Amino acid sequence: MSFVGATMRDEERYQQGMLVRRGVLGDEHVDRTLQNLTSLNEEFQDFITRFAWGDIWSRPGLERHTRSMITIAMLIALNREAELKMHLNAAFNNGVTKEELKELIMHSALYCGLPAANASMHLAQQIFAEREAAE
């Protein structure tokens, strides 16, 4: 395989990733990320766009709704508040409902522990209130 072919595939993967990233996270979030590119984070953001969004989130085996639910469950388990907040907001772009998020958090209490579920429930309440206030 030539370097030109690999570069083209990387560019296609990046473009696909950007479409999915915008669809899931929203233009405002993605635009803010792009405006904040630096020499330190530029390659990392490219990596996220190509591999997380262009490869994994673009695979045909699961709908975005399901991917959102899985991602949120894993972020609860890992106690990754900033990413969890982002994906709780993004879940609505993928058709996830407040009721489904509530049930996911309740279910996570069994497998991730009460402290993780409790923190996630508080975060979800905050996000729901912010979204309702913006409507």
From TrEMBL:
<feature type="domain" description="Carboxymuconolactone decarboxylase-like">
    <location>
        <begin position="43"/>
        <end position="125"/>
    </location>
</feature>
<protein>
    <recommendedName>
        <fullName>4-carboxymuconolactone decarboxylase</fullName>
        <ecNumber>4.1.1.44</ecNumber>
    </recommendedName>
</protein>
<dbReference type="GO" id="GO:0051920">
    <property type="term" value="F:peroxiredoxin activity"/>
</dbReference>
<dbReference type="InterPro" id="IPR003779">
    <property type="entry name" value="CMD-like"/>
</dbReference>
<dbReference type="InterPro" id="IPR029032">
    <property type="entry name" value="AhpD-like"/>
</dbReference>
<keyword id="KW-0456">Lyase</keyword>
<dbReference type="InterPro" id="IPR052512">
    <property type="entry name" value="4CMD/NDH-1_regulator"/>
</dbReference>
<dbReference type="InterPro" id="IPR012788">
    <property type="entry name" value="Decarb_PcaC"/>
</dbReference>
<dbReference type="GO" id="GO:0047575">
    <property type="term" value="F:4-carboxymuconolactone decarboxylase activity"/>
</dbReference>
<dbReference type="Pfam" id="PF02627">
    <property type="entry name" value="CMD"/>
</dbReference>
